[in-house]
Write a structure and sequence with these properties.
Radius of gyration: 31 Å
Strand content: 15-25%
CATH architecture of the largest domain: Roll
Distance between the termini: 79 Å
Oligomer: single chain
CATH topology of the largest domain: Chitinase A, domain 3
């Protein structure tokens, strides 16, 4: 019995999807194809699909949920209108304020997109970093490292250990090619800082190995489990509580300064428009 119920549910979903697709395909002939209604309110397929999230994959599930939410909203709104005056002063005032805010915000965004200079120089970033060094204390250990996870049965373990620490461009290419062919997993970019936890969580004993990993710089460590060997090179490290390296927080500072400059841009714009309005004598205070 349960099988037939599940089968019926699946058939209903497919029927719903086919109906939606049919309506959508016919929309070029008739733009007003409705998929739900409540009294004098109608929901078109185009309106529903215009709210379809990019990350959402199942159209059927989305439409079912959207129609349900739309109907609930309309039912509650219809009931609320019996008790609340649509022309209520508080509602109209709030709506007008919100509308004005939206218009101003959209105007500001258009100006930012067309006129705002997003450039932040390296000197600006370095200067901010030095002036606010106390704001950039590490809350976690970070490392510059390489990690290769390889099957225990491989015949190339010694070669991996020889290549993993190389700085030679030719051998580095050889290492990359080797990892693509034989490694189960690998991370070879030891020019950037990353949280130690991103490496240790991939090891057999997890964070228990942190102390060992942070014992020496330019040291190769090896760990094993039943199937794999984990070879990790710690090129450099910084301990939690130390000052963050500039390269580690560089992007964050750049975004911070861009936002700061953006706010100043808007402030300057507001002041300019206000002064222009004063000069034109359009402003009067009674």
């Amino acid at each position: 019995m349960m099988f037939y119920i599940q089968l019926l549910n699946k058939l209903n979903k497919y029927l719903f999807l086919l109906t939606a697709i049919f309506l959508f395909s016919c929309s070029s002939e008739n733009k007003e194809e409705y998929i739900a209604s409540y009294k004098d309110d109608f929901l078109s397929l185009d309106d529903a699909l215009s709210n379809f999230p990019p990350h959402f994959k199942d159209t059927t599930i989305f439409l079912e949920s959207y129609i349900n939410d739309w109907l609930i909203t309309k039912v509650i709104l219809n009931k609320a209108k019996l008790y609340i005056d649509e022309d209520d002063n508080d509602i109209n005032s709030t709506v007008n304020q919100y509308k004005e805010t939206l218009i101003i915000h959209k105007y500001q965004n258009e100006l930012i997109n067309s006129q705002f200079d997003t450039t932040v120089t390296k000197d600006d970033i370095k200067e901010y970093y030095e002036k606010h060094s106390n704001d950039f204390v590490l809350h976690k250990d970070i490392v510059k490292a390489r990690l290769i996870k390889i099957n225990k049965e491989t015949l190339h373990l010694n070669k991996v250990k020889d290549l993993i620490s190389t700085k030679n461009e030719g051998k580095l290419i050889e290492l990359v090619d080797f990892c693509e062919m034989y490694a189960e997993n690998s991370f070879l970019n030891d020019s950037i800082w990353v949280y130690l936890s991103e490496f240790s969580q991939k090891l057999p004993n997890g964070s228990k190995e942190n102390k060992k990993l942070l014992s020496y710089k330019n040291k190769i460590h090896s760990f094993t489990d039943d199937k794999f060997v984990y070879i990790i090179l710690i090129r450099d490290y910084q301990i939690k509580g130390n000052k963050s390296p500039l390269t580690f927080v560089f992007s964050n500072i750049r975004k911070l300064l861009q936002n700061k400059n953006k706010k100043q841009f808007i402030t300057n714009l507001e002041e300019k428009l206000y002064q222009e309005a004063l000069s034109s004598e359009h402003i009067k205070i009674y």
